[in-house]
UniProtKB/TrEMBL annotation:
Cofactor(s) listed in the protein's UniProt record: a divalent metal cation
Record protein name field: Putative 4-hydroxy-4-methyl-2-oxoglutarate aldolase
Family matches, as InterPro entries: RraA/RraA-like, RraA/RraA-like_sf
Entry-linked Pfam families: RraA-like
PANTHER family recorded: 4-HYDROXY-4-METHYL-2-OXOGLUTARATE ALDOLASE 3-RELATED
Length: 239
């Protein structure tokens, strides 16, 4: 049972954003918020076992994990912390995306927090997918339709446990706070500031219109350098 609060943005805005892949959203961001050209998105490659899944758009649930060291908490406190974690993941603005930083330093990915159980539990809690620099496993048994971007794929969960949740995390070069709006697909992920989210679909359409004359001539059997120059000029005139 999850408790999904009405998000700060209309569902129609999230739906509109989900019609575009993440690179197109990055292109649109360059138009709407050029000052974010170098920040707010993943800059390191992540493994995506399900590249054919559509883009996901949701509000971040942030977690820091580690697996090399065993939790120092007593068993009873560990059980309590796990319930508190699931309560955090399963409440708040929805839909949600789990963003998990592995804080094991040089041993990042040593143990997988994610597999058959966690993917199905998090899907039931209202999450659309996970973005993590840690490892994942159980790919054939993974929850259907649940997207994953991960630092690696491995066999064991070692001593993996959540050290903290709800704070700021950094995954693959992308800094994320709880409730940040995230757009992700097989290419990576980007944080979308709430105040410009509604402007991005129109900007994405503009990007597409500007690319059209260039692609048309590039794919044409009559391609020539002169025609490319003319197409590039037409592209810059599209507003």
């Amino acid at each position: 049972m999850t408790d999904t609060a009405t998000g700060p943005l209309p569902a129609a805005v999230l739906e509109a954003l989900g019609r575009y892949d993440t690179p197109t959203i990055c292109n649109a961001m360059e138009i709407v918020a050029p000052e974010r050209r170098l920040i707010g998105y993943t800059t390191k490659q992540l493994v995506c076992p399900f590249p054919d899944l559509p883009p996901i758009v949701g509000y971040a649930r942030t977690v820091a994990i580690r697996s090399v060291l065993k939790s120092s908490l007593p068993a009873e406190e560990q059980s309590k912390r796990r319930i508190e974690y699931y309560e955090y993941v399963g409440t708040g603005h929805g839909p949600r995306i789990s963003v998990i930083q592995d804080i094991d330093g040089p041993d990042v990915g040593y143990g997988a927090f994610w597999g058959e159980v966690q993917s199905n539990v998090h899907k039931a809690l209202g999450c659309l997918g996970v973005i993590t620099d840690g490892s994942i496993r159980d790919i054939p048994q993974w929850a259907p339709g649940f997207q994953a971007l991960a630092g690696s794929i491995g066999p064991s969960h070692a001593w993996v446990h959540a050290e903290s949740f709800g704070g700021e995390v950094r995954v693959a070069g992308m800094t994320v706070k709880s409730d940040d709006l995230i757009h992700a697909d097989q290419h990576g992920a980007i944080v979308i500031p709430l105040d410009i989210a509604a402007k991005l679909p129109e900007a994405a359409e503009l990007c597409g219109r500007r690319e059209t004359p260039i692609l048309e001539i590039a794919r044409s059997p009559d391609f020539s350098l002169e025609k490319l120059k003319a197409a590039l000029k037409r592209s810059t005139e599209i507003h």
